[in-house]
Amino acid sequence: MTTNPGSDGGVPATQPVGANLDAPAQVPPSPAKGMFGITGTGDVSGFGGLVRRRPTTVDSPRPFGGYFDEVYDALEEAYPGFADAVEKVVVDRGELTLHIRPDRIAEVCQIMRDDESLRFELCSSVDGVDYLGSDERRLHVTYQLTSMTYRRRVRLEAAVAVGTSLPSVTSIYPTADWQEREIYDMFGVVFDGHPNLTRILMPDDWEGHPQRKDYPLGGVPVEYKGAEIPPPDQRRVYQ
Q: Whole-angstrom Cα distance, residue 18 to residue 36?
């Protein structure tokens, strides 16, 4: 530790050796880098005991179990382009995920909603994920569908590269409207055909997409009762 006398004659400030209090916003060099100089494991505790598993998605063999086989067979029968549209089927932790070609996602959603054997009437959530460093098509969009008729759930997932767009499903599932806007705002995925694809959380003139894993780790200074609290990246850096 090093001690610096306070400029106002008050309590001296202490600065950990190696800390850089004036660090600018940093671009993460790797999504697997943790605090305290930890690299490779993804352990952000600093103790080096945690290991981050790389996501692996491989085709699950049939039978899938439960109602999953019925959903698969019903979609295959109702959708002529099934073989070309479905990239893989993954059953994990009791959940069924159909990985769909990006350009076919709206067609599949239409069939999932309208076919009498499927009847997935509700899209409860549309989510974005950034698999930086582990997938060339790093931006994944997932659609959580619920059949209130048959009391079933299924997940659709489409993966796109940066700069590639997806068809909007808002005309099929109106609940996707604001959720697609949020994914556009946070991850930069463009949804073709969306009625009003504008930012929803950040200001209209904001640069970049904050939930991408290569987004700079900056901050905005906050004033509190006359004292200015610096952004997180300028408070302390563990090295």
A: 11
From the list 74, 229, 116, 106, the residue with the least C-alpha distance to 170 is 106
pLDDT, tens digit, 9 for 90 and up, residues 62-92: 899 999 999 999 999 999 999 999 999 999 9
State the amino acid at position 17 in one-letter form: V
Which residues, listed in sequence order, are joined to residue 229 by a DSSP beta bridge? Answer: 222
Distances (CA, A) of 121 to 15, 116, 135, 140, 151: 58, 11, 31, 22, 11
pLDDT in tens, 18-64: 434 444 444 445 555 555 555 655 555 555 566 666 666 788 998 99
Q: Are 25 and 233 in contact (CB under 8 A)?
A: yes
Quick count: other Cβ atoms within 10 Å of Cβ 77? 12
Give the span between the Cα atoms of 231 and 168, in whole angstroms. 36
Predicted TM-score (pTM) of this structure:
0.74
Domain ranges of the chain: 58-203
Class of domain 58-203: alpha beta
Q: How many CB atoms lie within 10 A of CB 164?
A: 13
Q: Residue 235: left if φ>0, alpha if ψ -120 to 50, beta else—which one?
A: alpha
Cα Rg of the chain (Å, integer): 23
**Which amino acid is it at 221?**
P
- Closest C-alpha among 111, 126, 119 to residue 157: 126
108 closest CA partner among 63, 153, 49, 155: 155
Residue with tokens 């159909």: 98
